[in-house]
Amino acid sequence: MNPDNPLLKILACPLDKGPLILDETGGALYNPRLRRRYPIIDGVPQLLPSSGVSVVDEEPVVENEHDVSAGPSDSVGREGG
User: Fold this and answer.
1) Phi/psi at 12 (nearest 5 deg)?
2) What is the pLDDT of residues 29-77, one digit of tens each?
3) Torsion of CA 11, 12, 18, 20, to 10 degrees
4) For the purposes of burial, counting CB atoms within 10 Å of the CB of 38, is it exposed (0-12), middle (13-18) or buried (19 or more)?
5) Between the CA of residue 32 and those of 38, 42, 78, 79, 81, what are the distances in Å?
6) pTM of the model
């Protein structure tokens, strides 16, 4: 899947409904909150809950994050006080 694909803006995790990140190979979508990876087979994301695989060892290296639905973090740029 191409990182510029507009479909990435609307795809969501089937479990928590949050945004997904395209992994570095373009062969899977990753949910960092649940640490689950959903494969992309023949260009079609497999987003059934049963298609997801838990990632337990390490988080994948993400070359081009496409977490486009997440806005700026509330904690960024704020100082305590």
Assistant:
1) -140, 155
2) 999 999 999 999 998 999 999 999 999 865 555 555 555 444 444 445 4
3) -60
4) buried
5) 11, 23, 24, 26, 30
6) 0.67
16-28 mean pLDDT: 91
Residue keyed to tokens 């639905």:
69
Neighbour tally for 40: CB within 10 Å: 17
Q: What is the DSSP string of the chain?
A: --TT-GGGGT-B-TTT--B-EE-TTSSEEEETTTTEEEEEETTEE--SGGG-EE--S-PPPPSS---TT----TTTT----
What local confidence, expressed as pLDDT, does residue 52 receive?
95
- The number of residues making up the chain comes to 81
pLDDT of 72 reads: 45
